[in-house]
Each structure stands twice: as structure tokens, then as C-alpha cells.
Amino acid sequence: MKTNEMKSVNGGGASGADHPQLSIAPDVRLGKGVKLSKFINLYGCQIGDNTKIGAFVEIQKNATVGKNCKISSHTFICEGVDIEDGVFVGHSVTFINDIYPRAVTGDGALQTEADWVVEKTVVKKGASIGSGSTILANVVIGENAIIGAGSVVTKDVPANAIVAGNPAKLFRYITEEQRIA
Ligand SMILES: CC(C)(COP(=O)(O)OP(=O)(O)OC[C@H]1O[C@@H](n2cnc3c(N)ncnc32)[C@H](O)[C@@H]1OP(=O)(O)O)[C@@H](O)C(=O)NCCC(=O)NCCS
User: Fold this and answer.
1) For the chain, how big is the Rg over CA atoms in Å?
2) Across 85-139, where does the E strand assignment appear?
3) Structurally, how many domains does the chain consist of?
4) Using a 6 Å cutoff on CB, does residue 130 contact ligand 1?
5) Which residues are registered as beta bridge partners of 85?
6) Rounded to an integer, what distance in angstroms lies between the CA atom of residue 148 and that of residue 169?
7) 20 phi and psi angles, rounded to 5 deg
8) What is the pTM of this model?
9) CATH, residue 138
10) pLDDT tens digits for 122-160?
11) Are 92 and 74 in contact (CB under 8 A)?
12) pLDDT tens-digit map of 38-88
């Protein structure tokens, strides 16, 4: 594991690599001061300094999470997702990287990575994603935007917008006081 520092598990200062309740692959790149709860599955991903990750979160290979983010429990961050600094992700948020998924190829064999292409999603700095939301592939969530709880985000969200619903629609823009510097 390429760490700049020992991780703190529940703030306890233990190394996640040695923690029996954590599954952290050797290729994970963790920044300084990352805080990990129990029962986390990380592989091939990059997590920035001071980011906090809740229990039962999975983060796949080639996903990135920036500095000072909060990733709440039961969230799934798949390959192709880039989360910038200072982003809040609520509980049970699901990202998607394959809009037309199939288990098998045309001849009935189980698909491999060669049979589909990862689609991208970007969450810009300071954005917040409400609990229970689903973020479809090929979207950009703008800086400081807020996604309401239980939303299904199907298209780009402008910076500073509040969106909610299925499909997520613009409610309004955040006020100056609610803006994160
Ligand atoms: C979307 C959100 C930011 C809106 O907050 P708000 O501007 O204060 O909105 P209000 O509570 O005044 O509600 C305004 C309207 O939107 C509706 N609404 C609020 N949140 C909604 C949501 N997530 N999805 C659908 N409709 C929603 C309300 O029912 C209300 O409808 P009405 O005008 O017909 O009565 C907020 O409700 C939300 O979902 N925040 C995310 C919270 C979260 O997931 N936190 C995670 C950690 S606990």
C-alpha cells in the first residue's frame, strides 16, 4: 500500500492494512490523515488527504476521491468516477459507469473488461450528494451543487444548483450564505 502516513481507523491511529475488518488492496493510494471506518473495500483507487470514509463503502479501481471529502456509509463509487476536493457524499449513494450493462456477450459467455467501456462521472469541488441518490454515468456535478436525497441524476448539474427528484430537476441556486468558499 502506497501511503504517505498510517491511516487512522475510526480515529484510533491503527493501520487499515493490518485491520482485519478492512479490505484495502496494495495498489490503493491513500493520502495523509485519511480516516476509515470498519468494513471498507478499496482497490486500485486514490483517496486524498484527510478524507473520511464510512462503513461498508466500496471504491473501485481508477476512481479518485479528493482531499477533505466525506463519503458516508454504504456508498458505492465505481471505476470512472472522479470526486474533487471537499465533496460530501451521503449514505447509500450509487454511481454508475455502464448505461447498457449486460452480464454476457452475444455468444452467452460471461463478459470481461474487454467487452464494455467504462463511462465517466465527475463531481466538482465542494458539491454535496444527498443520501440514497443514484448518479448515472457521463454526468458532471458542478462546484458546490447540492443533490437532494433520493435523486436520480441523469444529466449535468450546474455549479451552485440544488437539484432533486427522479429525474433530478433544478430547484433553485444556493444563496450566497450557503456557498462554500
Ligand atoms: C433538496 C434539499 C437540499 C432541499 O432543501 P430545501 O430547499 O430546504 O427544500 P424544502 O425542504 O423547503 O422543500 C421544498 C420542496 O421540495 C421538496 N423536496 C425537498 N427535498 C426533496 C428531495 N430530496 N426530493 C424530492 N423533493 C424534495 C419538498 O417536499 C418541498 O415540496 P413542496 O414545495 O411541494 O412542499 C433537501 O431537502 C435535501 O434533500 N437535502 C439532502 C439531505 C441529505 O441527503 N443529507 C445527507 C446526510 S444526512
Assistant:
1) 17
2) 88-89, 94-95, 121-123, 128-129, 134-135
3) 1
4) yes
5) none
6) 10
7) -65, -20
8) 0.91
9) 2.160.10.10
10) 999 999 999 999 999 999 999 999 999 999 999 999 999
11) yes
12) 999 999 999 999 999 999 999 999 999 999 999 999 999 999 999 999 999
Atom of ligand 1 nearest to the CA of 129: 44
CA distances from 42 to 35, 56, 137 (A): 13, 10, 20
Whether residue 19 is contained in a domain is answered as: yes
Select from 133, 171, 178 the residue to mutate for testing ligand 1; criterion: most ligand atoms less than 8 Å from CB.
Answer: 171
- Whether the Cβ atoms of residue 55 and residue 38 lie closer than 8 Å to each other: yes
The alpha carbon of 20 and the centre of ligand 1 are apart by a number of angstroms equal to 39
| DSSP letter for each residue of 57-94 | -EE-TT-EE-TT-EE-TT-EE-TTEEE-TT-EE-TT-E
CA–centroid distance for 120 within its chain: 12
Instruction: For residue 160, tell me if it sits in a domain.
Output: yes
Task: Kindly indicate the confidence band of residue 17, based on its pLDDT and cuts at 50, 70 and 90.
Answer: low
Range of the domain at 71: 7-99+130-180
Q: Is the pLDDT of residue 23 over 50?
A: yes
